[in-house]
Amino acid sequence: MPQIDQIALTYGSQIFWVLLTFGFTFFVIGLGMFPKIQGTVDARDKRIADDLEAARTANVTADELEESYRVKMENDRSDAQALVEASKAKANAAAEKRKNKANADIAAKVATAEADIKARAGEALKEIETVSAEVAQDMVAKISGAKVTKAAALKEAKAALKHG
Amino acid sequence: MATEEGKIDPMHQFEVQTILDGFALGGQQIALTNSAVWMLVAVAGLWAFMLGGMKRELVPGRWQMMVEGFTGFIDNMMEANIGPAGRKYAPYVFSLFMFILFSNIFGLLPVGVLGLHPFTVTSHLTVTGVLAIMSFSIVLIVGFAKHKFHFFSLFIPDGTPLPMIPFIFIVELLSFLVRPFSLALRLFVAMTAGHILLKVLAGFVINSSNAGAGYGVLVGIPSFALMIGISALELLVAVVQAYVFALLTSLYINDAENLH
Q1: Residues in chain A where the model's pLDDT stays below 70
Q2: Of A93, A138, B115, B258, whose CA is between 20 and 30 Å from A76?
Q3: Residue B55 lies in a domain
Q4: What residues have CB less than 8 Å from A65, skipping those under 6 apart?
Q5: DSSP B258
Q6: Residue B19: closest C-alpha in chain A
Q7: Strand pairing category for B7-8 and B2-4
């Protein structure tokens, strides 16, 4: 095995070269380049974490905005509802009042008309009675020749009219 | 490949060959070897790979995504095994993981077809040993700096009955001291075994084909099919061994950082 056979002859040069090359690796690559690459990765990770955090914050803000918008919307809606209800009630009340007034007017007119009708009906009845009494007086005079007083004829006519 | 005529040596790939003589240091010749070249290639590849991830764009491209995948993987591992204190060790564990990963994978590249000789740096005990000793030293330094001599309480698990403490202490101390060896040997053996297996099978293909068309069909083709599967397995092993080395290092650092 040359590794063992040659060890006495070559160890000096092997150790020298490995120290030289590994020393270069450690000082130039390990200490020079490695931390820079590490730094790049760390900076990127930090950037990503920060961006994610910002996105999260923006999301929360958006949620809050939406919530406040929703609350405002609801308030506005209920305000409008109340306004509509109030004006409806007001309109109803006004309509009721007008209706009542109109009803009263109509009732008064109807009452007047009814009274008028009653009066006229009375008058008409009286006229009919008078006419029937005269007719009856005439008929009695013509048929029997008896004289009936106006008052008696009227009485009979009233009675007959009442029985129809 | 062939040391003698008609004989294929699967161990030849592990030989360290000198390219330039270099200089002497304390009696040792510090030469530019094929091993050194492959270490340099692995590090250059790693550097180029990392450079693609340095655009630092907010929205990463494919390459940057890939590099960030690796750094994030190590980051998560440190976070999961050590906790928030683990971040300061991440550059070390990342360097370790990527260095081993690139060495493993570059050693598997089929550059042989271009006439080059691939060499797996991590199949050498000296290399894995240095990495393991480094990890173990960090554990010791962090442990004693943070907890002083209280660090020895690591070797006494919670709720050990009093008469058992001396024995448990010795057993735990031994298992602790074995850690650098197991760390180094695991990677070295895993890489060596896989490469030997591939070379032995490749030797079957060549030798059976040389022996005749019938042998080539009977032995060569199944061996070749097996090699394809084992190459895929070796790629997996390359990743898993780098992962295991980094994972165990992070677990050992966790022992030192957060004394139970």
Answers
A1: 164
A2: A93
A3: no
A4: none
A5: S
A6: A13
A7: antiparallel
Contact A18, B34 (CB under 8 A): no
- In chain A, whose CA is at the least distance from the CA of B13? A2
Domain count, chain B: 1
Question: Which residues in chain B (197-256) have CB-CB distances under 8 A to chain A?
Answer: none
Report the gap between the CA of A46 and the closest CA in chain B (Å): 11
CA distance A66 to B95: 54
Size of interface A-B (CB pairs under 8 A): 134
pLDDT tens column, B56-101:
888 888 999 999 999 999 999 999 999 998 899 999 999 999 999 9
Q: Do B39 and A25 touch (CB under 8 A)?
A: no
pLDDT in tens, A128-151: 888 888 888 888 888 887 777 878
B117 part of a folded domain: yes
Tell me how far apart the 2 most distant CA atoms of chain B are, in Å: 72
Q: Which of residues 1-60 of A touch B (CB under 8 A)?
A: 1-4, 6-7, 9-22, 24-26, 28-31, 33-41, 43-44, 47
Q: Which residues of chain A does B53 touch, with a Cβ-Cβ cutoff of 8 Å?
A: 33, 37
**Interchain CB contact of A118 with B (< 8 Å):** no
Q: Is residue B204 part of a domain?
A: yes
A117 touches chain B (CB under 8 A): no
Ramachandran sector of residue B27 (left: φ over 0; alpha: ψ -120 to 50; beta: rest): left
CA distance B187 to B16: 18
- Judged against a pLDDT cut of 60, whether residue B14 lies above it is answered with yes
Q: Return phi, psi of residue B20, to 5°.
A: -125, 145
The 10s digit of each residue's pLDDT in B125-159 is 999 999 999 999 999 999 999 988 888 888 888 88
Question: B164 lies in which domain range?
Answer: 75-257
Question: What single-letter amino acid sits at B227?
Answer: M
